[in-house]
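Researcher: Next sequence.
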Amino acid sequence: FVLLHEEGHRVHRDITLNQMLSHLIIFLSGFGLTLYPLLLFYSTTSRKLSEYAADHFASCHCGKENSIETLSRLPREHATLSFKNEMLSFFLGNHPAVSMRIKFLKTFSI
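Model: Next structure:
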């Protein structure tokens, strides 16, 4: 699941798109434009959406149950509070909380 999740990022060109947007924000900041609200919005939504898309990509290739089982093991291995807690992960994390990712995968018939 983990390797397929990362492949999903590659297929969706998430890294390239994130870098392009970051460079654009830095470029526009050079003209005195205050883009902190845009950066905050971007970090709390776009990155998380790409995580859901990568999870979906992986689960389409290795199965929903395998994906959910693998995700359910992550909180034990990633001890950060924002990774486990839905509210903290929304504001502080760059990944959605594991419980939110599992709920997302359960909504699809794969």
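Model: The helical segments are 2-11, 14-29, 36-62, 64-77, 81-84, 86-91, 98-106. DSSP finds seven helices and no strands in the chain.
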